[in-house]
Amino acid sequence: MGQNMSFSRLQRALKQALAARTSETISRRASGLHQPVITAEFMVHPGYPSHPEDGGCGEGPDDFSQSTEREHELNVLRNPSVLQLYCQEGVQLCSFRDL
């Protein structure tokens, strides 16, 4: 989250999540079952910092919504290396609404 987010950390987390799929796939292939679907959520709030007088839930925007860390998250997630990683690993992105 925020400035702690980096391509290498994102890559490591994704590979750990997909490792479970790989070990299950080997045993499922032997029995003729389909490859399991792994659902994972990146808990991020990418975007641009809010202005102090705009947004929020009745009391104005909180500190994180005004933080430049949101833009950092956006830049990491839009990095071509991250998009390439998704393609290599067969990751399909969706919104919460799509679920």
UniProtKB/TrEMBL annotation:
It holds the Pfam family YdjC. Its cofactor is Mg(2+). Belongs to the YdjC deacetylase family. It comes from Xenotaenia resolanae. The lineage of its organism: Eukaryota, Metazoa, Chordata, Craniata, Vertebrata. This is Carbohydrate deacetylase. Probably catalyzes the deacetylation of acetylated carbohydrates an important step in the degradation of oligosaccharides. It comes from the Eukaryota. Residues 45-72 are annotated as: Disordered. Keywords: Carbohydrate metabolism, Hydrolase, Magnesium, Metal-binding. The keyword Metal-binding applies. InterPro entries: Glyco_hydro/deAcase_b/a-brl, YdjC-like. The keyword Metal-binding applies.
